[in-house]
Amino acid sequence: MKQYKIVKEIFRVNNGIARTADITALGIRNTYLNKLIKQGVISKIKQGVYEWTESATQEDAEILKRLFPDGIICMNSALFFYGYTDRTPDAWHLAFNRDINKKRLQIIYPPIRPYFMEPHILEIGITHEIIQGTKFQIYDRERTLCDLLRRAGKIDRELLNKTIQNYLKDEKKNIRNLIQYGKKLRVYSKIQQWLGVWL
């Protein structure tokens, strides 16, 4: 019972998420962890990371926020959030500093698709939104569109066209920011090419 209380307290102070190293550092053996997994007390999120099942959430966003507080929702996930596409992404698209330890991103669930950004452009267009009840960093509409245009050659043409049409109809669009970001991200010529007639 003493071990159970120790483990429970570790998860409590870490908002329901704990790492193997945190637990074994207090003298709890891996065999006891395996016992808790079999009993359904804790569940494995990824290698070396566990969630307290009693406090488990059905929402992926909360788990992602705990694992990647530095992640920024981008690309298809941002498009879906803004209603520019009705295609539900098959993974969470998250932007990170390119110097991040890539091993952190090797998780089993929820599925993520990372994008690595140079530090000097990483923070351009960051805003905050509530997603599945969790406050997240997310690129705003203009940054999301710029990122899409940066990858125009690799993006489905239908998705790109629909995104542009929906952006132009969006009352919350900010053309001034779009042009400003476009110049910083070196996609201003693509903005002129794809949206020039409406600018």
Mean pLDDT: 89
Q: Ranges with pLDDT <50 over ≥5 residues?
A: none
Give a count of the beta strands, DSSP E runs of length 2 or more. 8
Strand sequence of the main sheet, in spatial order?
A: 1-3-2
Structural class: alpha+beta
* H-E string: HEHHEEHEHEEHEEHHHH
In brief, what are we looking at here?
This protein has helices spanning 2-13, 20-24, 30-38, 60-67, 75-81, 119-122, 141-150, 157-169, 175-184, 188-195; strands at 17-19, 42-46, 49-52, 72-73, 92-97, 112-117, 126-131, 134-139.
Q: What would the keywords be for this entry?
A:
about 200 residues; Arc Repressor Mutant, subunit A; 2 domains; three-stranded antiparallel β-sheet; three-stranded mixed β-sheet; 10 helices; 8 strands; about 45% helix
Architecture overview:
Helix 7 packs antiparallel against helix 8 (157-169), helix 7 (141-150) packs across helix 9 (175-184) and helix 9 (175-184) crosses helix 10. The protein folds into 2 domains: 2-55, Arc Repressor Mutant, subunit A, CATH 1.10.10; 62-198, no CATH class. The chain has 10 helices and 8 strands. It is 43% helix and 19% strand. With 199 residues, it is of the alpha+beta class. The strands form 3 sheets. It has a 3-stranded antiparallel β-sheet with strand order 1-3-2. A 3-stranded mixed β-sheet has the order 4-5-6. A two-stranded antiparallel sheet has the order 7-8. The model has no long low-confidence stretch (mean pLDDT 89). It is elongated.
Record the SSE blueprint.
Elements: H1 2-13, E1 17-19, H2 20-24, H3 30-38, E2 42-46, E3 49-52, H4 60-67, E4 72-73, H5 75-81, E5 92-97, E6 112-117, H6 119-122, E7 126-131, E8 134-139, H7 141-150, H8 157-169, H9 175-184, H10 188-195
Parallel strand pairs: 5-6
Antiparallel strand pairs: 1-3, 2-3, 4-5, 7-8
Helix pairs in contact: 7-8, 7-9, 9-10
